[in-house]
């Protein structure tokens, strides 16, 4: 009789334990990864998962062992145009109209083209590796235009003899001869006349020095 009572009591205790266990919420085994405060990823990341930021510039993944989230941000190449656009979810800008440059004055120049601006020839070329590049994109390579020659050679006082060019000789007067140099400047020499040996010397027309009859 005693043995039967013990058996019944044991059954009752076991049933109570089973009921209590069934009433408890199930234990979870899901592991949660820890994201740094600077993470650009929204929501949770599971172990071994990889997710990208909304702008497409950062990839984050969760280490399965440490449950720590690591992120790596990509870098974009220098801009190759000044009218770039960025599509949603794409990290880097795109150039729908191709390579172009901007002059110091703000003029947009297509690849392989040039403009004359502020007396300079400004060229845009994607093939030239020395093209200057600013933070907003490539800049044009500008070279000053050749200076047109002056209208003629000039004296030291600034008087211009129109029509003369380097290598020309001119005679401002019968006693002076001038040579125009490569800088369009006149070098002049004045003839020194000997003292005449007569009292009735005269200067012939177009001559510099006096002569005796």
TrEMBL record:
GO BP terms, alphabetized: negative regulation of BMP signaling pathway
GO cellular component, one term: AMPA glutamate receptor complex
Protein keywords: Signal
Signal sequence segment: 1-23
Family annotation (InterPro entries): VWC2/VWC2L (IPR042979), VWF_dom (IPR001007)
The keyword Signal is annotated on this UniProt entry: yes
Pfam families: VWC2L_2nd (PF23334)
Name of this chain's protein: VWFC domain-containing protein
Species the sequence originates in: Littorina saxatilis
